Amino acid sequence: MTRAVLSAAIDSEWKMVSQERPCPVCGADDACSVHTEDPFACCAREPSDWKLTNGAWLHRVSGVTAVPQVDLLARINPAANGNGFRL
Questions:
Q1: Where are the domains of the chain?
Q2: What average pLDDT is seen over the chain?
Q3: Model confidence, pTM
């Protein structure tokens, strides 16, 4: 039996889709995620050749802008992000 071990470092590289940023594969606004740096999506609805241990499928996508990682503190207090940009 193989056990999948999740880590915070791996999970932090993926961001859940939303109404503002739907899944590039199926168009859903929930259950799917997009990689923050590489052109990949984890789609919970559309099958591919790469089934993942979480039941979703990995898709290579083109034309998808990377999802920036945002510091939680910067969301709460935009002045705390240190770069002068409001989020």
A1: 8-81
A2: 77
A3: 0.61
